[in-house]
Amino acid sequence: MSDRSTALERQIASQPEQLEALLERPLPGSAVDRLRDASRIWVVGTGTSQHAAELGAWMLQEGGRAAHAMSSMAFANRTPPFADGDALVLISHNAGAETAFAGAAWTLATRAGVPAVAITRVGGTLPDPVETVEKETSHTYTVSYTAALVQLARLAFELGATALSPDVLARVPDAVRSATADPTPVEQPGRLLVFTGEGPAGVTAREGALKVREASRLPAEGYDVEYLLHGHAVPLNASDHLVALAPPDSQGLTAGVEGAARAVGIGVTRVEEPADLPVLLAQIPLTVRLQALALRFALERGTNPDVAIEGPWDDPGLWAIGSPTQRR
Questions:
Q1: Is the overall model pTM greater than 0.85, yes or no?
Q2: Which domains, and CATH codes, for the chain?
Q3: Pick from 179, 178, 142, 155: which is nearest to 49 by CA?
Q4: Are 143 and 15 in contact (CB under 8 A)?
Q5: How far is CA 268 from each of CA 112, 194, 237, 263, rounded to the nearest angstrom?
Q6: Each residue of 139-194: pLDDT tens digit?
């Protein structure tokens, strides 16, 4: 990397050490206890946190729990019918009054008596959280996402996901370190950058597209590979570029879509995470590769990756919509 002149660059580079430090801190036993008897767990977040919720739900399913990911807004506005054995895991980089629908989701669940665990930044306002890292100084969140995934994996292990054991998780920081030192060989397309992958890699595709859009303002989209195939690939052409992510590619559909894209003249790059990790954990270093790509594009395009939300998009009234105080 360069002289680390942006907060985004510093945050990306900090991830191996921050994840190592996180793994040295014990999980709050009270958080594990709140989830211990849960048979159904709602995993809730918005944006990047929703991507973490989707991967987190799969991790909890590895432990035999019926886990379901939802956006904070959907959970708050269309609260599912709660039942005995339900619990909430809320993921928010800035959980509390700072994030309207996350706060509303927390309030709805706790008022209904549903056991709730927040995964949030150090010093957040929600009670007894599972903490990740200090509040990030770039709008393009990176380390708080990978830290949330590590904490979700640790919770899932405590609830029965034996494949996500501490000795396996201990390999994640080195895999992230390798990812930060291995540039992803993708050049900027003339029109649109499209990421795709199967299942967990489809979540990583959406997260990678979000990072590219925020950091560099380059139009980018992310799709699950089956969803891309069913119509979304139709308008793509030689002015676009497809980035195919793996693992997984369990039936070869991602490879098949790569071949079809090449056949119609679309440039294709396959980015495959080589780390010896379970598929869900492999998404952490795979995501870091896309974070670094987003940073490179930002530097090449001369954009400020640390200020993504500005102007009318940064209206406090807009961001307060849906907050618990507005619902009273």
A1: yes
A2: 7-176 (3.40.50.10490), 184-301 (3.40.50.10490)
A3: 142
A4: yes
A5: 49, 10, 11, 10
A6: 999 999 999 999 999 999 999 999 999 999 999 999 999 999 999 999 999 999 99
User: Is residue 173 reached through a cis peptide bond, with omega within 30 degrees of 0 on the bond before it?
Assistant: no
Q: Which residue has the tokens 């139009």?
A: 219
Whether 293 and 241 have beta carbons less than 8 Å apart is answered as no
**Which residue type does 59 have?**
M
Asked if 172 and 150 count as a contact pair (C-beta separation under 8 A), the reply is yes
**Single-letter amino acid, residue 224:** D
Quote the CA–CA distance of 89 and 167 in Å, as a whole number: 24
Summarize pLDDT for 103-130 with one digit per residue, the tens: 999 999 999 999 999 999 998 888 999 9
Question: Tokens representing 78?
Answer: 């269309």
Backbone torsions φ then ψ of 218, nearest 5 degrees = -75, 130
Q: Are 293 and 305 in contact (CB under 8 A)?
A: no
